[in-house]
Amino acid sequence: MSDACPDPAGAIKAIDKNSVHQICSGQVVLTLATAVKELVENSIDAGATNIDVKLKECGVELVEVSDNGKGVEEANFEGLTLKHHTSKLRDFSDLIHVETFGFRGEALSSLCALSDLSVVTCHESMQVGTKLVFDHKGHLVQRSPQPRQQGTTVSLLQLFATLPVRHKEFQRNIKKEYAKMLHVLQSYCIISTGVRITCSNQNEKGKRSTVLSTNGSHSMRDNIGAIFGPKQLQTLLPFEQMSPSENIVEEYGLNDAELPKQLFTITGFVSRADHGVGRSATDRQFYFVNNRPCDPLKVTKVVNEVYHMYNRHQYPFVALNIAVASECVDVNVTPDKRQIFLQEEKLLLAILKSSLITLYEAGANKISLNYTHVPSSKSLDVTANICHIVPSEENIQEHLGSELQSPKVSLNLANLKAVFSNHYSTNAGSKTGTAKAANGSNNSGPAQKTLQSFFKSEVKPSVSDCSLKSPLKSEKSVLDGFRYRNKSSGDAEEEKDSPLLMTAITELKCSGLEASFPGAIDVPDDKDKEMFDDDVHTEEPEAQSEPFASKEDFLLSPDTKRAKRTTVTLQFSLQELEGKIQRMKNQQRQKAVDELRYRRFKAKINPGENQSAEEELKKEISKDMFKEMEIIGQFNLGFIITKLNSDIFMIDQHATDEKYNFEMLQQHTVLQGQKLIIPQKLQLTAVSENILMENIEIFRKNGFEFQIEEEAQVMERVKLVSLPTSKNWTFGPADIEELIFMLTDSPGVMCRPSRVRQMFASRACRKSIMIGTALSVSEMKKLVVHMGEIEHPWNCPHGRPTMRHLANLDIISPD
Question: Tell me, what DSSP letter sits at residue 268?
């Protein structure tokens, strides 16, 4: 028998070094932007003044970064790509004073694990360069001489090829990865004064084009102009640092006496707050701490909040560098070093807020948006006179709990069809008669049934014109149970008794309970008389009295309220009534629970629940289902009622037709262009020029025509020769920039500028079926089928819902 014992299942062991290397490498380099960033930072740390970034097919095939820095000494060839080998640190204490971009010794080692990495370098002390080839573990496997001037070139072939899932995702989203990489590279171009940085890309046809270039200027402003053009420079204001005001110091909870002086020094530029000067998104906001690009979320929030005080519909261009002592900042937070911790961060925010407010307040073109609306006394009077505040039927249901709420509708399919059948068979005169009949049913008598309350006090008033609307638990509940009644001039007040309570009283009476309950009951008609004994005496009701102004008014003797009054003794038990109501509550609660259990559509027809209702429709209704919907009828000459299986839906005929017309205009309309006499220079950035040239067909469908000279200098390769026009609508360079921004996130996808969408929405609205138009069954069916032919059928271009769920015939009352 062997002495070796098998390891127990689940034993804790050390992971082998190769696996650790692969796992950790995938955490350090996540994207194309991270890979390029690490190589550019190495070049800047090496003292380079010229950095050239070359990509092939946007980085899928090749990423190459060359510089003219110091180069790599021969003694460092072996440790160049080993994990945690660096010349920047010797121990942890050096981290506090580190001033270089890199310091962990992880970047090249991780890139070795994720791609085929090779290096060509020539140190300043060497006459001939050397080519180094490394394996995925970071070990040097090949070394050969190669001519090169002083500096280093790092090449990455097939990035992420060792991680199949990530590699496939990388290839699928390469356009987005490429755009993010350019944005990160722009930040280094802005802050790296005295360094010339260029970036070029070679497409699959072998043609190379420059997408980014700076001139090596020692001015941040010049670098911004080189990247974004002189047009952007015209909108910039230099940032002027100010001490925080007393109000802002108090807002951030700072103690002015204890604040450190000159801890932060902020320099840079922000755009003016004039309308039309800002950006539609935060795509041009760059923040630096000690010249290191970073993403300080709180700083970004403060800058945008202050800007929105003066231009609430746009975002500013921002390029701010925050200089602070190295011991007051921690850059070792995330693998990409983009998140940074700062001491006295509240002080920094206070300085920024005060400085920006002062800067924008001093602007000559300041526009104040601080409008205050003061409601007029008339509107207040109208609101006050709408109603007297009293518990209503809805209040009682809310008091009993949300689970007691009744279902949406109480109907069945036969009744529903009968309603629409009658609707189509009636004319305008019958509609009037129906309305009168409806009004008559609501006012079945000049007075409604009322129940006299029970009091223990010696005063035993006879109460008139009141309704008990809540469960009787005490004498005080009667006083609290009055509902206030709306008044309108010339109309009698309308009261309704709780169905719950009246049903309970009926059952109590039938059971012959023996209890004394003094009260007065007004019975308006013969039907209601059947609920009570023959002992109940009634009189002809008089004109309805005014609502009670107070409890004292309520307790007045009956002689002061009415000249004649009949008082009867009713057999009644308060405890039995409370028990009946409790049992009915339990039944309604169980019914509500059962309904929610089987209900797929839970959102109500309420503006506050539009998002929930839309999500439910997206989940439950597919495009094919619209063809299967049965047309029941048209409601109020504006809504189509349809049935799908056991579900009833209501469709807005105008909104759905408008959305269909809008999407058809979006897809098929080719705007006609107006030729310009002289081609207009757009001065687009290199990135924007490339996006425009790659999506030129989308611009043509939007009515824009360009003259493209690919051999010209960057920012002069594209000229505008034709603008779209349509009646009173005109478009310009701002719409081109918006299209470019949209295509950055969704390259190749047909899209329209917001102003073109507004024009299409206006046209679609005018040509659609209006509310008030009677439709035949075939016309209604056509509108419903169209909903299944569009991409987003749930709301119209103006945000109005097109469809809502009404009821489910399986869970509603059969009556």
Answer: E
Domains along the chain?
Answer: 17-216 (3.30.565.10), 235-359 (3.30.230.10), 608-814 (3.30.1540.20)
Number of Cβ within a 10 Å radius of residue 174: 16
Helical axes 107-114 vs 17-28, angle rounded to 10°: 100
The H or E element that residue 110 is part of is: helix 107-114
Identify the sign of the CA torsion 573, 576, 577, 578. positive
Sequence-ordered alpha helix ranges (H) in 483-629: 499-511, 526-529, 551-554, 558-561, 574-598, 610-620, 625-628
Of residues 206 and 484, which shows the higher confidence score? 206
What DSSP element (H or E) covers 182? Answer: helix 174-191
* Cβ–Cβ under 8 Å, residues 665 and 752: no
pTM of the model: 0.59
Of all residues in the chain, the percent with pLDDT exceeding 70 is: 67
668 sits in which H/E element: helix 653-668
User: Could you tell me if 578 and 505 are in contact, meaning their C-beta atoms sit under 8 angstroms apart?
Assistant: no
- Per the listing, tokens 């259990």 go with 597
Q: What is the pLDDT of residues 23-69, one digit of tens each?
A: 665 567 888 999 999 899 989 988 899 999 999 999 999 999 999 99
Q: Which residue has the higher pLDDT, 12 or 510?
A: 12
Residue range 270-299, pLDDT digits in tens: 999 888 788 888 889 999 999 889 989 999
Closest listed residue to residue 743, CA positions, set 31, 176, 55: 176
Predicted local confidence at residue 406, as pLDDT: 40
Detail the DSSP E strand segments found in 325-418: 329-330, 341-342
CA–CA dist 201, 530 (Å, integer)? 91
Q: Which of 393, 300, 371 is nearest to 338 (CA)?
A: 300
From the list 81, 47, 84, the residue with the least C-alpha distance to 154 is 81
First to last CA, the chain: 83
The residue among 683, 684, 674 whose CA lies nearest residue 730 is 674
Strand blocks (E) in 636-704: 639-644, 647-652, 673-681
What type of residue is 625?
M
8 Å CB contact between 284 and 318: yes
Q: pLDDT band at 399, cuts 50/70/90?
A: very low
Buried b (16+ CB within 10 A) or exposed e, 336-351: bbbebebebbbbbbbb
Q: Is the dihedral of CA 689, 690, 694, 698 positive or negative?
A: negative
| Range scoring the smallest mean pLDDT among 314-328, 391-405, 582-596, 741-755 | 391-405
Count of beta carbons in the 10 Å neighbourhood of residue 658: 26
Average pLDDT of the segment spanning 767-787:
92
Question: What's residue 398's pLDDT?
Answer: 44
Which amino acid is it at 642?
Answer: T
Query: What dihedral do alpha carbons 210, 216, 220, 221 form, nearest 10°?
Result: -70
pLDDT bin (cut points 50, 70, 90) of residue 469 is: very low
Contacts 24+ apart (CB under 8 A), 623-629: 623/788, 623/789, 623/793, 624/788, 625/788, 626/784, 626/785, 626/787, 626/788, 626/793, 627/785, 627/788, 629/784
pLDDT at 486: 40
Cβ atoms 33, 177 nearer than 8 A: yes
